[in-house]
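Re: the request from the purification team.
They wanted to know what the chain is likely to look like in 3D before they choose a buffer screen. I agreed to run a prediction and write the result into the notebook, where they can find it.
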Amino acid sequence: MPTGVALHDAREQLFDAAERILLRDGPSALTSRAVTTEAGCAKGVLHRHFADFDAFLAELVLDRIARIDDQAAVLRDSAGSGTVTGNLTAALTEVFESVAVSIVALITFRDDLRARLRRTRPAGVPVLTEATAMIGTYLAAERELGRVAADADVDTLAPTLIGAGHLLFADRRDPPPGAEAVRKVVSTVIAGVAR
């Protein structure tokens, strides 16, 4: 990057570059040099905005968690419209077609990152925990509307759906599953409680 050229919203550009690397090459390819090269900037740009690479990665994870929080609001607001199966299929696809699967692998792969995240998120696997809460909140809203059985155990259904969705999307070598494959898993999991 030439001297004197401003990099607009450097943090977001670096996050987007890291996401592209994660999706294309996986967590083992994610280095500070790879991120700055992908973003088209000097390596020093990353270190001007973050204390070190693990601080950058922790902020990346927190930024992507915030996106799930935004998605959760949209999903919760969809309660009572469309179909429960359709809404859940779309939500799972959106979570897992994003960088979520790669972030889970990244957290598993990097001990220092996991330790940093544990300071503010002591339980669960970041990203998956928030996705589970999103699904649980949605199912609870549908239960209140009578579209899910009154005795449905949403605290069990939500992690079941997230676990099944994660397994569907976890293979980085094959193309992601189609909507019909995700719909089949969703309808199987909620078959006993959908109204």
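For the purification team: Confidence is low (pLDDT under 50) at residues 1-5.
Please add any questions underneath this entry.
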